[in-house]
Predict the 3D structure of the following.
Amino acid sequence: MDGNRRWAKARGLPTLEGHRRGYGNINKIADALFSLGVSYVTAYIFSTENWNRDKNEVSYLMDLAYERITKDLKILDEKNIRLCVLGRRDRVSKKLLKVIDNAVDQTKDNDGGTLSFCFNYGGQQEIVDAVNNLDPAKIGLITTTDIDNHLYAPDIPPIDILVRTSGEFRISNFMLWRISYSELMFMSKHFPALNKKDAQIIVQEYASRQRRFGK
């Protein structure tokens, strides 16, 4: 979700309004992708490094996450979309964890698509947590399947295509284990400016790629 702040600055708007517009655009882009046959959509909405931002900005983002998950729960349920949240629970308020857990539980049986949020998430930390949760007796015998099974939300499959907006060309600690054979796509648009046409462009671009998986 890169470019929220830059999108706002370019329009003479407060930085926080950029975040609000970015968060508000998640469902629109996800809906467009689901309508095109995509089964899983994941948005990186707050990283473990984002705690280092200005305290007022972090507080606003926490409140915004609470607001969006609370308001969007009914919409997700009506559209038969499952919500999944990947990340650590430390430092997140009990109030926010409660609405997250409620939304995940209420939508767990929906099968029209899965919308995942990487929230308080770091790709390296996910791998560390997976290893720390393994049976110590398996040290020296660990397989990639063992790691797969101990990731956050292990039912979320490997990433087919990773899309980075706002002209950035970095991975930024996003789902490092699951992107081992991911296609990469970089777009100059800021995330709040993405629309249904862009969703079509993403799917078309993916369809044009020849995936070899090392072969």
Summary: The chain has one domain: 4-208. The radius of gyration is 17 Å.
